[in-house]
Automatic annotation (TrEMBL):
Residues annotated as domain Solute-binding protein family: 74-428
InterPro entries on file: Peptide/Ni-bd, SBP_5, SBP_5_dom
Keyword Signal part of the UniProt annotation: yes
Family, per entry: Belongs to the bacterial solute-binding protein 5 family.
Gene Ontology terms, MF aspect: peptide transmembrane transporter activity
Keyword Signal: yes
Signal sequence annotation: 1-21
Domain of life: Bacteria
Pfam families per UniProt: SBP_bac_5
Organism: Bosea vaviloviae
GO cellular component terms listed in the entry, alphabetical order: ATP-binding cassette (ABC) transporter complex; outer membrane-bounded periplasmic space
Keyword annotations: Signal
Protein's name in the database: ABC transporter substrate-binding protein
Amino acid sequence: MKRRQFLQGTAAAALFTPTLAREALAQSSSPTVLKMAPQANLTSLDPIWTTATVTNNHAYYVYDTLYGGDLDLKPQPQMAEGHEISADGKVWKIKLREGLAFHDGQPVRPADCIESLKRWGQRDPYGQLLLKAVEAWGAPDERTLEIKLTRPFPMMLDCLAKADNAPFIMPERLAKTDATKQVTEMVGSGPYKFVASEYVSGSRVVYEKNEAYKPRTEPPSRNAGGKIAHFKRIEWPILPDPATAASALTKGEIDWWERPLADLQPLLAKSPDITREVIDKNGRGSIMRLNHLQPPFNNPKVRAAVRMAVNQEDYMRASQGDDTTVWQVCRNLWWRGTPYYTGELEDLMPQSLEKAKAALKESGYNGEKVVIINPTDFPDIGPLGDVTYELLKSLGMNVEFAASDWGTVIQRRNSREPVEKGGWSIFHTTGAAVGWGNPALSNLVRGPGEKGWFGWWTNAKAEELAEEWLYAPDQAKQKQIAVTLGRLALEECATIPLGQFVIKTAYRKNLTGMLPGSAPYPWGLKRV
């Protein structure tokens, strides 16, 4: 509570201070420039290398996809003109739209799409299922991509239209980069170009309109339809201090603050010039991710003790404030409002410190150090680590708190080394509920080990269930499989859920065309 009271006080004071002198915040009446303060600093630019949400959002400016998911999550052609499927379902031919070109002027070819999908498929859980079914890739002509399968892949379009951590298309020369290494150039075919010469991590990101981009004619819907860029230039001033961001938005020095701190919402609500809106109705989940490769969390009994102790209300109040209309508990790895949520798994998450202490005593835990890597510049995530630190100390665990900026966290979580050599034990993050909505999409319930997401949970049964879900004969069977998988993943502590919340984004009222969805899409937006 002291932290939130402090922020409220500093924000209130900031609203009455002189105009900020930083050049990035200079007020502009230009109808062709949009300034948006993103949720976090953009330190990693490659959306295949990292699952960081801010990088995924950045990628939507620069790249495009073969298919997109509309607001009803139905796949729609995007870069694709259309497709044909063989009678036996084993051959897909996807034809590209005419005139597609990358930012360097080179045409988009089937080879670019093939290499992009192959690279994405090495890192993404849905992509891994697809690659497992691919027999061969081909390009029968300069506009057609051919995918030959060993068996029909019934959810091909859903896979290619994946919205969060999407299969973005980049040039073949860049897509051939090892998937464990970051690409060095931002060259896509999307509606905006990344301006590398003006990028300063920790200060600002700049995009310019891609004048050669040919949007589709359909109305925009989520990440599908016509991506019309009305602004010639979009700037992301990096404002990690919430009081500074609140002041900048109120004064018109920025147009849009993607994720206002929950406790500053009442201050923003007082301004007649600001609109606050929930654009992602399904909300986001907060999670704790444990490192399964290293002690002590390579011991499932130690993991279970932590799971039993978690009280989600503590996490939600710390990160989202006391307004219970914007958050709720969800003791399930299928989030509320998604198809496979079937209720609270209270037996696995009893929220009992006494039971957790008893379980830890029986686990064989021997005082091994637990290192929590935690961001100081991400208000939705930082408090989660604070709560976990106090919780583990109350359990009697040997805990170290490694605070840093978010960019350092997402770099360090790649390490598989012991904590003594720069590794980690726990990190926290958030993600779109619909982006974790089924066994093919969700990293949270999958168990491919070192080929999987940070934490590297290994469970052959989980992988079998995911594949069974994909090829299940009907929705009833899919639900049965998904529910079984969700319980297995929570029982084994693949991921520990910490609650679910919605965000009221805030923007100046002279902006129109704000699109609903799980990312801050730039297309369709204009100033009136």
